[in-house]
Amino acid sequence: MLVMTAAQLAVIAQAAEAAYPRECCGLLIGSGQRVVRVSRLMEAANLLADQRPDRFELDPRIRFQAERELRGGRERIVGHWHSHPDAPPLPSTTDLEQAWEPEMIWLIAAVARSPDGRPRMVEALAHRLDRDTGRSRPVPLRIAEKSACQGKGFPT
Ligand SMILES: [Zn+2]
């Protein structure tokens, strides 16, 4: 299970909507094993944003910086997030090919244009991906502050 706060999801929604129709990405920092709690987010530049709207490559400098900061502490990089503009929040074939680290949780945020013309995050789902089997399995996502996420379209 992945536990996040409504505020953290709102940050991801905002970044995903701002990047639309490109993908955005970032790191999930947290702790825990069976129940993984996200303590904070680190937004990262998507190095492929200008080349391919449907791909992302997290700036490795952010990854190094995070690993340096977290060394010796209780927190670690528990996963990362990226957006899927006009696509469901499920791992793409490319995502599966890039899943080098089976312990990482992939949070994917689906963004679509709403009737008023503005991009809106419609759903976010978490997964674990296994490159060797080419499969993914869902990770239940729990929002720690339930009341604050009503009307946002998150599964409850
Ligand atoms: Zn993807």
What's the structural blueprint in terms of helices and strands?
Layout: E1 2-4, H1 6-19, E2 25-31, E3 36-44, H2 60-70, E4 76-85, H3 93-97, E5 105-113, E6 119-130, E7 135-139, E8 141-143
Parallel strand pairs: 1-3, 1-8, 4-5
Antiparallel strand pairs: 2-3, 2-4, 5-6, 6-7
The structure holds zinc ion.
Zinc ion binds at residues 82, 84, 92, 95, 108.
Quick synopsis:
The protein has 156 residues and is α/β, with parallel strands linked by helices. It has three helices and eight strands. Strands 7-6-5-4-2-3-1-8 form an eight-stranded mixed sheet.
CATH topology-level name = Cytidine Deaminase, domain 2
Reading side by side through the largest sheet, how are the strands ordered?
Answer: 7-6-5-4-2-3-1-8
Q: How big is the Rg?
A: 15 Å
Named at the architecture level, the CATH assignment is: 3-Layer(aba) Sandwich
* Small molecules held by this entry: zinc ion
**Helix-strand string:** EHEEHEHEEEE
Poorly predicted runs: 147-153
Helix count, DSSP H or I runs of 4 or more residues: 3
Broad shape: globular
**Fourth-level CATH superfamily:** Cytidine Deaminase, domain 2
Helix content: 10-25%
